[in-house]
Amino acid sequence: MEDLGDGLVLRFAGPDDADRLAAFNARIHADPPQTWDEGTAAWTRDLIGGAHPTCRAHDALFVEDTATGAIVSSVCGIPQTWSYGGVPFGVTKPELVGTDPAFRRRGLVRAQFATLHRRSAARGDLIQAITGIPGYYRRFGYEPALEIGGGRVVFSHQVPPLPGDGEPYRVRPATVADAPYLARASATADRRRSLVWCPRDEAIWRYEIGGREAGNRERADFWIVATPEGSAVGFCAVKPGLYSGYVWASAYEVNPGVSWLAVTPVLLRAVRVLGEARVAEGDPPLTGVAFRFWGGSDHPVYRVLPDQRPAELPPPDTFAPFAWSLRVPDIPGFVRHVTPILERRLAASILVGHTGVLRLNCYEFGLRLDLDGGRVTAEPWTPRSGDPGDAAFPGQTVLQLLFGYRSVAELEHAHGDCWVAGRSSRLVLDTLFPRGPSSVWSVG
Hints:
This protein is of the alpha+beta class. The chain folds into three domains: 2-130, Aminopeptidase, CATH 3.40.630; 152-314, Aminopeptidase (3-Layer(aba) Sandwich), CATH 3.40.630; 330-432, 2-Layer Sandwich (Nonspecific Lipid-transfer Protein, Chain A). Helices cover 27% and strands 27% of the residues. Strands 1, 2, 3, 4, 5, 6, 7, 10 and 15 form a nine-stranded mixed beta sheet that branches. The protein starts with a strand and ends in a 12-residue tail after the last helix.
């Protein structure tokens, strides 16, 4: 317990706090004119009730008003493991960040984030990652630096008709017995297409399929696409309900060696049936339905969908694209952790066996990369007057380069105080840190 003054104390949650926190979050995170969000309440209970595969009650913090005993602010940090090109690292994902309106602008979120960051560091995490209010989390040391979201839309009238000889595959609900297949299939897809991803083991998949409350706002329905004989060839995750008139497919994968062009029409027809049923149940009923495949900026399904136009961007408070905001307290340490990936990139490039030094000036701190015959070491470096280094990235923008979110040229275009000295420095940076897609389906 930490005394914050003015009769407020910061506490770690316990199992007995589940209902209190669920009630607080359901009220604070409700969208007006709603006054209660049951999906958020169910999500809170699942996170701290003991069934979640990575999160426990003590991973939630809250501020209590000792005069009334009421919770007035709360944060939950969800532990998980992510991967950078195949190198795993620990992450804490802050969620359910909220404060009662009467207690805002008192630094309560800042105090809770300081505690959450200390606990994350003690656990050995290298990063904290959050989505949410654009710009807000910069004040706590976060930088938008990793791709999130992006997709394509298909309308119901564009779905191919059923062929005369019937469906070549069938679609069925996933069960917990499918967890081993889902763990393998998702890992294979992530390694093929994403720089950064969140590995999902069998325990996480069992929780996703059968461990969440039915009303949990983070729950998805999982489908298996299988041959007539029952062999799984792919899977899809579909969010319950309609979102702004869309059926939202948040994940879709097909096994290597199986044609996306053969499987996708089968899935589209199954989703259309589901969407039309949801439309009919709507109040008021909608006149049509569209399917949103939300697989990031690049996904194989986009190339086989009937309509390949980018999805129209809705208002910023719904599905507008934004980035994961990352906090990396020890950037040289993180780069050291992922040097196997950097060395692999060098070995596969025209710079194979390169030797040299590259000093990155971030103005308030610096990073020195020593390359010796293709081996890479990373250490802190202090920029000094008259010795500005070999390249400059203001503030935390270097994270955008490190995580493939922006190229060197894009950062130079966006920031007047970003520069690279010399052709060789640029070539080394482009080789070590190429721009590339990531699709992180985090543990929530």
